Amino acid sequence: MSMDRRQFLKITGISSILGLGTSIASATNLITGKQLLPPQVDRNKEALTAKRWAMVVDMSKFKTDEDFNKVFTACHTNHNVPDFRKPDGSPDRKFEVKWIWKAAYERAFPGQDNKYMSEHMKDMPFIVACNHCDNPACVRVCPTKATYKLPDGITMQDMHRCIGCRFCMAACPYGARSFNWVDPRTAPNLKADLPNREYPTRTKGVVEKCTFCSERLSVGKMPACVEAAPKGGLIFGDIEDPNSEVRKIVTSQLTIRRKPDLGTGPAIYYIVGGGDHA
Amino acid sequence: MKLYDGGKILIGLLVFVAFATFPFYYNFGTVNAKPEPKTDTPEIVKYQQEHNGKKECVESKEWMRGEHMQLLNQWRDSVVRDYNRGYISNTNHNRFDMSLQNGCMKCHSSKKKFCDECHNYMAVKPFCWDCHIAPKEDEKS
Predict the structure, then answer these.
(1) Could you tell me which residues of chain B have a Cβ less than 8 Å from any Cβ in chain A?
(2) Is A203 inside a domain boundary?
(3) pTM score, two decimals?
(4) Strand (E) or helix (H) holding A41
(5) Residue A202's closest chain B neighbor by CA?
(6) Given this model, what pLDDT does residue B123 score?
(7) Cross-chain Cβ contact B101/A214 below 8 Å
(8) Does residue A190 carry a pLDDT above 60?
(9) DSSP-assigned letters across all residues of A178-200
(10) Residue A181 pLDDT > 90, yes or no?
C-alpha cells in the first residue's frame, strides 16, 4: 500500500489522539478505582466535640506520689506504652517512652524562676505532657504529614505515615515526643500480655506522644488521665466555649503555660500555688 | 556462522537456564493447596443463628476480596484524620465501626484463617500486626 505524506500524518494524528484518550480514561479508572465508591462515613453520635480542646492542671490537688502515679499508670496502660527496665529494675532512660510525666518547676518553666525562690518551689513536680500547641513546631517540620493538627486543636499523629526521622522530637520545645528504638512489645510490661487490647501498640521506628485521648473522645469518654486524677486536678474541656470549666478557670484565675514566649501557643494551663504547695 | 568458544558459551547458557528456572522445577510436583479462608468463627456462627443465616458483612465477599486493602486505607485516613468512625455499607446500608482491631477482628476472630490463609499463599506481608493487636487464638486450632 502506498501512502502520501499528508495521508500518513492524518492517520498517525488521529490514532495518537485516540490512544491518548483511552489511556487517560483507563488511568482515571485506575486512580479512582472503578468499584470503590466514595465511602459514606460519619462520626460516632456519642463523640465529645469541641472547637478547641484544652487542659487545666491544678497542681495543688496532687498531694502524694500516688496521685501522680495513678495518672501516669492510667495513661500508659491505656495506650500500651512500653516501660523498659535495666537489669537492676530501674527505668531504662535510653529506651524511655513517655506520654505524661512529671518535671520540676525549674525545668517545666525555665525563665520563670528566680534566685530567691525556695528550693521547695524550684523542685516542685509538675505534670507535663504534649501541649497540643496552636502552632506546633513538630507539625511544621514533619516531612510526611504524619503529625498534623485536628480541627479541634489536638496535635495528632498517624503512625502509618511516620518514617521515624525524629525531626519532630528535635523541634518540640517540651520534649513531649519519644522514639521507639526497639519493638515496644519486647518491654517487660507488654511482653506477656498487653494492658489494653483495644488500642494498638506502636512499632519499632516511630515517634509517639500524648494524643489527648482522641480515641476516647470519639467514643464519648474523657481522657484517661483526667479520669484517674484527683478531683479537680486535671480539668479538660473546650476553651472556646465560654461556659466550659476550663475557660472559666483560665479567665478568672492566674494560670501559666510552658514556654509561652516561643509562640507555640500551648493548650495546657497550670494553676500554680495555692494550698500546701504555695 | 561460526560460534567462537561455543563450548564455554553453551555450558554458560545451560548453567544460566538451570539457575533461572530453579524455582519452577524445585516446586514442581509439590501440592499447592488453594487457600481456604474461613469465616466460621464462633462469633459469626452465633450472629448467623440469630439473624436467620444471614451472610453479609461490610460489603459483598467478592468485592472485599479485591478491594479490602483500599477500603482499609480509606478507613484509616477517615478515622485518624477526620474523626469519622462509622462506615455505611454500600450493599446493605448498615453502619460498621471503622476499626480493624475493634471492628473486623471482633467477628472474624481468627487471624490465621481470615488473614494469613491468603496472605501466606500470595506471599504478601502487610504490617498491620506490628502495631494492631490480633485476637487471641488457641495454638491448636
Answers:
(1) 63, 66-67, 70-71, 74-76, 78, 80-88, 90, 95, 98, 101-102, 127, 130-133
(2) yes
(3) 0.80
(4) strand A40-42
(5) B131
(6) 87
(7) no
(8) yes
(9) EE-SS-GGGSHHHHS--S-TTS-
(10) yes
